[in-house]
């Protein structure tokens, strides 16, 4: 496809945290040759092959950004391993097979740094996806996601399809899932801090607070996703992450949230709860070599924005 050809870019999971970030960024680009379709689950259940086909027939996309997945934090992953595996395998199988059937020019799917081996050397890079078992806490999700990379290679070898994938680290931002038990750590702690303030209580954080994570703001990630769709030509995945030096502990994240919300109570660490993987430090070396002007919104500012969004949208957001 040349630069002036019209593209219909369909985003599965377009109503979620990452999808909404991409929608905001895509609007700001205002490109006349691109039309965007942002799917939500009420458009059709992607676990169902016929429903998936119906969606592809209806929108006739040329390009697909595949985000739709069963997604959750550590505690949800530990509790629902069967569902994380089966639902994600079904969604990915249906979406990628329809991308083949409907001759999609390019599909970019979303993996996660959770899928890397637990026992590894650091920093982790893109060549290590299949080097050993993932952390046991999320093996349902991790193995289902790893199979996308296997399918991307197989579809290319057998059918010449151009399917690739990106590997973001932990993501946060507006439109996140703020559920108290099933969400990721940042939205979970934003919601808990809000309730602690409302009820004049201390804030309880699960685990020791010592694990380390690299967090990426959904609006920074959106820019990188669109860059990958436009410019990333390899089949093998690329890590989309802040630098190794930006890794931060869960305790420090909790302090940033408390500061952003002006929470004055105590922070208590419940060490009877799981810590999950201690760290999964990822290298963004490959990304930097292809995208030299890489910059990120500072986490302190982006956490402030995420807290503000949650408070302003408290009545309607997912929680
Ligand atoms: P999210 O906010 O939970 O959004 C999930 C999206 O998938 C929603 O649009 C949801 O639709 C859709 N969906 C779920 N099941 C579906 C089904 N059976 N049929 C159709 N649509 C379905 O998740 P997210 O955080 O944006 O995640 C997007 C991608 O990033 C996922 O592939 C995830 O694995 C990956 N990722 C996330 C993180 C993170 O920290 N959040 C980190 C690394 C990678 P409805 O809202 O309409 O239900
Ligand atoms: P992970 O990176 O896949 O492990 O995803 P999470 O976003 O679920 O982060 C998990 C880390 O945050 C673990 O060390 C948890 O012990 C810690 N944590 C602290 N409080 C919470 C919380 O309220 N929800 C979640 N999901 N994790 C929490």
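^ structure tokens above, recovered residues below v
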């Amino acid at each position: 496809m040349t630069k002036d050809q019209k593209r219909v870019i369909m985003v599965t999971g377009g109503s979620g945290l990452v999808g909404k970030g991409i929608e905001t960024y895509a609007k700001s680009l205002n490109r006349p040759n691109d039309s965007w379709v942002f799917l939500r689950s009420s458009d059709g259940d992607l676990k169902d092959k016929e429903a998936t086909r119906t969606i592809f027939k209806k929108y006739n996309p040329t390009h697909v950004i595949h985000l739709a997945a069963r997604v959750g934090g550590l505690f949800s992953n530990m509790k629902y391993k069967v569902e994380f595996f089966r639902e994600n395998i079904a969604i990915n199988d249906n979406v990628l097979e329809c991308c083949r059937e409907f001759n999609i020019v390019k599909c970019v799917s979303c993996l996660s740094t959770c899928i890397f081996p637990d026992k590894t050397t650091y920093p982790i890079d893109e060549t290590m996806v299949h080097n050993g078992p993932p952390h046991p806490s999320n093996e349902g999700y991790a193995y289902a996601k790893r199979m996308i990379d296997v399918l991307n290679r197989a579809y290319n070898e057998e059918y010449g399809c151009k399917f690739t994938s990106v590997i973001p680290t932990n993501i946060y931002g507006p439109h996140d899932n703020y559920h108290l038990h099933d969400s990721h750590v940042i939205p979970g702690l934003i919601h808990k801090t809000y309730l602690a303030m409302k009820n004049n209580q201390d804030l309880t954080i699960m685990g020791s607070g010592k694990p380390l994570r690299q967090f990426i703001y959904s609006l920074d990630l959106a820019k990188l996703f669109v860059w990958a769709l436009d410019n990333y030509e390899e089949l093998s995945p690329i890590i989309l992450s802040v630098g190794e030096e930006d890794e931060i502990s869960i305790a420090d994240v909790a302090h940033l949230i408390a500061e952003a919300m002006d929470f004055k109570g105590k922070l208590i660490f419940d060490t009877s709860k799981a810590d999950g993987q201690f760290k999964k430090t990822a290298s963004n070396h490959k990304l930097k070599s292809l995208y030299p002007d890489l910059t990120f919104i500072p986490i302190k500012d982006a956490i402030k924005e995420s807290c503000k969004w949650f408070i302003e949208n408290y009545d309607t957001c997912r929680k």
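The first helix runs from residue 17 to 29.
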